[in-house]
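User: Fold this; tokens only.

Assistant: Input:
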Amino acid sequence: SLKSTTVIFGILLAPTLLIYRQPDLGTALLVAASGIFTLYLAGLRWRVLFGFAGLATAAAPVLWMVMKEYQRDRVRTFLNPEADPLGDGWNIIQSKIAVGSGGVWGKGWGEGTQSRLDFLPEHTTDFAFSVFSEEWGWLGVLLVMALYFFVIARCLWMALQSKDTYSRLLAGALALTFFIYIVVNGGMVAGFLPVVGVPMPLISYGGTSAVSLLAGFGLIMSAYSHRKYIGD
């Protein structure tokens, strides 16, 4: 019912706003996306999701007013990074140079100039995939993306094999959260999305990210391995 759906979205909104207030917009968006994926896998219809998305879009002016100045700067930089090429636009400009200069074949392992000459900031964390793209080129990116999507497809297949609703929703939501990490970081380094602090899974340096992602894979495999006993 509409009442139940509204209550569920309210529950999802609470942790999202608390994380946003820290402030950590990137993690807040990931939490919101994970919740929406779970609702969709639970059977929520697309038209309901689009309806709430429309309400969120209508509230965008209000969101802009409550955003912190550095968050507004990120949006402005995303729309026109060349407006401040030596300041806020530096990161994304250097990232796009690194991605584009890799070409088809890449420059080779350890031969990337943007990272080795310190033009590209945060080249071990947020922009690690930019370094990979420069050194391994388009073919390397395609290979990594193919491996990523194989893992996602496998996780979704394991979710479908689960016989109880909870295991299916848990495994499916974790798999799609992994997908969001890839899309957000990949879009960020290529200039298609604003710069947020979201690492590329299992490539960007960071112990917390690796532990949380591997723990998620462990939960998916646990749900799959226990499917026989749950259904009996």
